[in-house]
Structure formats: structure tokens, C-alpha cells
Amino acid sequence: MLLRLLRGHLRPYAALIAGIVALQLAGTIANLYLPSLNADIIDKGVAVGDNDYILSIGFTFSRSASGCSS
User: Taking the model in full, what pTM does it have?
Assistant: First the structure.
């Protein structure tokens, strides 16, 4: 009964709800990607001393971090 009532009232907002779900999914994926970027910076940049690699991956890291701040 409650589900039928909610479906009826939320129908006009279906596109907005789908957008919110998509953005939440994108934020979650970005959040899960951050530890991998951090490991890459340490393993391939700091350990070898490659400053260009550190800066390029660090830029990607900061874009991902700012995109998923909630």
C-alpha cells in the first residue's frame, strides 16, 4: 500500500530521482578510486622520484576528491 502511494506521488519526479541516483553512483565510484590513486602516487611517483607523474596523478586525485565531497 505504501509503495503504491509513493510510486504515485513520486512519478513526476522520476527524472530527478534518476539523476540523483546517477550522481550518487558517480560520487561513490570516485570515492572508491581515491585509495588506488594514492597508491599509484606512492608506488610509481614517490618511490621513483618522478615529479611529473606525481603532479599529473595528484591533479586527478584532487579532481576526484573535490567531486565527491559531500
Answer: 0.62
